[in-house]
Amino acid sequence: MNTVLRHQRADGAATLTIDCDATGASRLADLYQRAPCRMLFPDVDAGEPLQAVLLTTTGGLTGGDRVRVAFKVGANARATLTTQAAEKLYRALPGAAPVDCSLSLQAGPDSWAEWLAQETILFNGAQLRRSFCADLAPGARMLAMESIVFGRQAMGEELRVGMLHDSWRIRLAGRLIWADAMRLEADIAALRRAPFGHGDARACTTLLYAGPDSGEFLDPVRSVLEDAAEGCGATLLDGLLIVRLLDADPPRLRSRALGIAGLIRHGAAGISRTLPRVWHC
Asked: Which of 126, 164, 227, 249 has the most neighbouring CB atoms within 10 Å?
């Protein structure tokens, strides 16, 4: 009789709700977490939004793992959700399902909600299906950033094969204002080098800012990108500021993304240009 080996898979989830109390302070209203997802709540400087740090205790994800995160910021509340470190995506075994990661964000009227994810590093052979969905009330402000690194640069590794499906959906007052998806599969190295691909870039970042004042940041962000390599740009679509960054040098891309995110969060919310401390550890 043949024995079928079943590998243990992670199925993590977290729900975080932040509300504004009668004094105007942002407070934790609800928290649910299931391993390997964990939330930490570091102290922040005066005037900074309430901060939560998401981590996965497995030290990385691989084929068949799932992570579901729901982030809710109530009316007039201010909150930042970030990640402890770059997330590593290991090579998937043959026949394994992709890693499935989803994050849903709800922002109430006149709230400030930040999703600032550190890089996702795709090892060669990794498979990832990732989605980000945001529902914004009128007057809400949202800053969201996610990055992908194609292979382990320190190991001289390139992402040659695997699968990546990355999708975004943004709704304002119930109306879909932006939908986007990127899919790379099988011979990823060839797709990345195609005319419609990433060229020689080894990392990419998508940064979004939604708010009544989003148009005020288009020119300042474009000024920051004047000395950037080809493939970097910013545009305004239906009240949503969309910034795309490509770079052959992931640390340089990280530095530029931090600068743009800092510019927006300071100008829009009056908070520090410096991102949470976990980004600088």
From this structure: 126
For the chain, the residue count is: 281
Q: Which two tokens stand for residue 93?
A: 């075994």
Q: What values do phi and psi take at 17, rounded to 5?
A: -125, 125
pLDDT at 198: 86
How many CB atoms within 10 Å of residue 133?
16
Cβ atoms of residues 148 and 112 within 8 Å: no
Nearest to 102 by CA among 133, 72, 142: 133
Dihedrals φ, ψ of 116, to 5°? -120, 90
Q: Considering the entire predicted model, what is its pTM?
A: 0.94
Using CA atoms, how far apart are residues 156 and 149, in angstroms rounded to an integer? Answer: 13
Give the confidence band of 81 by pLDDT, cuts at 50, 70, 90: very high
Place of tokens 């909150």: 79
Which CA distances in Å does 52 have to 15, 20, 278? 11, 15, 11
Domain-wise residue ranges, the chain: 13-280
Judged by DSSP in three states, 119 sits in coil
- Please give the average per-residue pLDDT across 255-276, as a whole number: 96
pLDDT, position 245: 95
Residue range 104-129: average pLDDT?
A: 97
